[in-house]
Amino acid sequence: MRVLLLVPAATLLLSSAAARAEVVEYACKVRATGQTQDVKVEVELTVPTDAQVGKEMAIGWHGTYVAGSELRAPATGLEDDLNLYAYAGISGIEKLTSATGVAAIGPIIPDAPVPLPATTVNLKTTSKNPGTGTVHAASINFGSSASDRAIECEVKNEDARTEYPLAITGTGETTSPSPSETDTKTKTPAGAADTGGGGEAGPDGRVLVGVGSLLVLASATGLVLRRRRVVAGL
Question: Which of 69, 100, 185, 214 is 20 to 30 Å from 233 at the Cα level?
């Protein structure tokens, strides 16, 4: 009977842990006027468990305002084609630093709260390398495009953010030298010295050079002796 009671309790604990969100504090700035606001958002990130090299993955982002700390539109309102651009930071995996997602919001009247999407936003990215790292909530922006931002919100409490584990499986990129690099590279055999002969003349090469030098010297000596005999005969 105790086992039957404990199993549902464990299930409830796991479910609540998966649904728990963290409060991320943002410093938001209206680019047109320079107006700033402090905003708090409860952000829940869902990290994939089957991420693979070369395949697009999605990190789920869901945010809700902390009561009383909503972002409000400027006095001029916000354009009709307003979007939310949410970001997640990624660390620990080579050449993988972030994921990005977008969701439509629509026009906002002056001084009204800027709503957040009711559904989960998929932040997408693709890794070129395998490895294990961590994911954390990053900035959020509002505008008609990722480059045309009306409001920018940067994380204030970076040190307090939760780091979620991320594992990517598969085979990463490999780089090898080009044929031209291989052909032009000087090779020096193990134990050989730099002889100035392209790096290929090892100990055997030095012996041949020494023998050649002796032959040249012997030939020169023979010529000198022969010349002396001729002079003596005269």
Answer: 214
CA distance 183 to 185: 6
Distance of CA 110 to the CA centre of its chain: 39
Residues in CB range of 22: below 8 A, 6 or more apart = 42, 43, 44, 137, 161, 162
Residue 197 has pLDDT above 60, yes or no: no
Exposed/middle/buried for 29, CB within 10 Å: 0-12, 13-18, 19+? middle
pTM (global) more than 0.70: no
50-79 burial, b at 16+ Cβ within 10 Å, e below that, comes to ebebeeebbbbbbbebeeeebbbbbeeebe
Contact 112, 73 (CB under 8 A): yes
Q: Which two tokens stand for residue 223?
A: 């010529």
Task: Give yes or no for residue 139 having a pLDDT over 90.
Answer: yes
Domain boundaries, the chain: 19-168, 184-234
Average pLDDT over residues 128-145: 97
Architecture of 19-168 per CATH? Sandwich (2.60)
- Alpha carbons 12 and 79: distance in angstroms, whole number: 43
Report DSSP state, residue 117: P
Single-letter residue type at 205: G
> Cα dist. 86→8, 44, 64, 137 in Å?
35, 12, 13, 9
